[in-house]
């Protein structure tokens, strides 16, 4: 097994183009290609655009917060490590295990989705065979090397980006009547109750949808520990990703809303399993593109595979980092000669496979596991914002100057505070409609991630007697050896 230092030397091979595409690809998926239609149907063009714009601004602040910490302390454990150092070790412990669990379950969900997508072409092939084949493919990509993961994710993400660009060009030409033979204009923005449908409650509900669509942008923090030059590549990637995501999402939704009225039944109830009612498919069909559904089905398949690939990488690296920090058994902190954390990869693959099999043998267990991981991404975002707020305050309190930071987030403390508030709103608003009707079983499923996080935090605090760190006792050392610390204890 390779030592930790050897691991860093072997795996610091992710380039800026990899980081940009990993974060970009992690957030452009079925949320944009399919679920965006439901957002427009629910809140109208104005409500959908406002919600995605609001979440986009929050994500920008989160990414700059993560960027400031990741360039100063580039570690694969990312926000779990930051929370344990700047807030409370118990919070870092809970964030790490929650995040690993979330992505391990997401891998299972994604491989189950591949079977649904592939049935478009191969309806006679059993779904479990297709899913296990793709799980094996994702495992092989990740076991080869970190560069293998980075290259695969780069090309899968590039397919999605090109699709969005083509869609935007086709959409704009369709709006102005250059394609499709009819000048549509922007009449759908004032059609019936447009642009805002359902008022603020409907718009707030779309905030949750938008939040799920942007999940995955925090992956840039996970990749920081394996970037060739984190001090230059991370800031550059953050800047590129923010503008690309914001422009892609806002422009795509604006185009869809202009071409398809919010009352269209094709937008209602859109799901990742029905490519036929993807807004992208509908727009391509409108201009007479032959095989539009087939093309979009292929794109959606790459999106699902990209998500599974990113999920396998993120969960493996988080478990590896926790193995090094003592939050997980030490075996998970080991790597092979190529710098791949093999024990962590095997454990993550096993959980993904078992979760997927539970969907065949017991759908109730599967649904419960998926629900339990639902809000974990938002809890990670909240952890990032709180950690950065504490990091910057401790940095100044201990006599440091901002000029010492390679990259520093602008608008502090407004950025992290705004991100904290919006993260809480999204978390609490996950299923707020069930509260007045006292639908306790539904509420328990929707908010299950929160009690799980609390239980993990309290368990670690009681066992290790941790406390909220004071600003003057926060460890701001750029690098520290957890194994050495453990031996000293």
From TrEMBL:
It is found in: Membrane. Keywords: Amino-acid transport, Membrane, Transmembrane, Transmembrane helix, Transport. The chain crosses the membrane at residues 21-43, 49-75, 100-122, 128-146, 158-179, 199-220, 241-263, 283-308, 340-362, 368-391, 411-428, 440-460. It is a multi-pass membrane protein. GO terms for cellular component: membrane. InterPro entries: AA-permease/SLC12A_dom, Amino_acid_permease_CS, APC_YAT. GO terms for molecular function: amino acid transmembrane transporter activity. It comes from the Bacteria. Signal peptide: none annotated. This is Lysine-specific permease. It comes from Lacticaseibacillus manihotivorans DSM 13343 = JCM 12514.
